[in-house]
Amino acid sequence: MTGAELPDLAEAGAVLAAEAARFASFGWMRGTSGNLSVVTGREPLRLAVTASALDKGELTAADVVLVDGEGAAVAGGRPSAEAALHARVVRLTGAGAVVHVHTVASVAMARRRPGGIVLKGLEILKGLGLPADGPEVVLPVIGNSQDMRVLGDRLAAAREPRMPAVVVAGHGLYVWGADPREARHRTEVVEWLLELELVEGPGPAGGR
């Protein structure tokens, strides 16, 4: 499946179950945390989102909910409470898939760099479509909220167009891509960058 091919709900469920199992195997979706989505329609906007309160390492193709462009359920069970934020990311960026994982490195680095995480001079930045020897880029950090409208507004205000990701303080990491495969690759790259920053030590605080 590519970004140009929109899946039906059954195909989307199978893809999301496989992606969730992969992330869970890394320890990035512990318990029932985290959620994934893939766009299944653009006119009107529809997303398949992993169902709420399920172990992400044990999902089946049926464990997804179809939501509209505001994150409200259209078909299936109960979507993640963050489905509205997935829909907002898609509307903002034109992405075809969104990944949300709860990683230790993302939470720790948000505490260490609340103003944003500056990245430069690393070969793996090519995995985000950025030059290894280019100018610095900032991975934004935003404050958490239980109100997805508020959180979406914060994401929209802080978003760096060159960086397909944002860290939510005290919460986790959101990453997006044209399709689930690209979103997965970008998630793995961003998490690698966060882990590197974490092990290199505190350094100067405050981000930018």
UniProtKB/TrEMBL annotation:
Catalytic activity as recorded in UniProt: 5-(methylsulfanyl)-D-ribulose 1-phosphate = 5-methylsulfanyl-2,3-dioxopentyl phosphate + H2O
UniProt-recorded Gene Ontology molecular function terms: methylthioribulose 1-phosphate dehydratase activity
Annotated Zn(2+) binding sites: 100, 102
One Pfam family per UniProt: Aldolase_II
This protein's record includes keyword Zinc: yes
Domain of life according to the entry: Bacteria
EC number, as in UniProt: 4.2.1.109
Cofactor info, note text: Binds 1 zinc ion per subunit.
Domain Class II aldolase/adducin N-terminal residue range list: 14-198
Enzyme class, first EC level, given as a word: lyase
Function: Catalyzes the dehydration of methylthioribulose-1-phosphate (MTRu-1-P) into 2,3-diketo-5-methylthiopentyl-1-phosphate (DK-MTP-1-P).
Record-stated family: Belongs to the aldolase class II family. MtnB subfamily.
Protein name: Methylthioribulose-1-phosphate dehydratase
Organism annotation: Streptomyces aureoversilis
Origin organism lineage: Bacteria, Bacillati, Actinomycetota, Actinomycetes, Kitasatosporales
Gene: mtnB
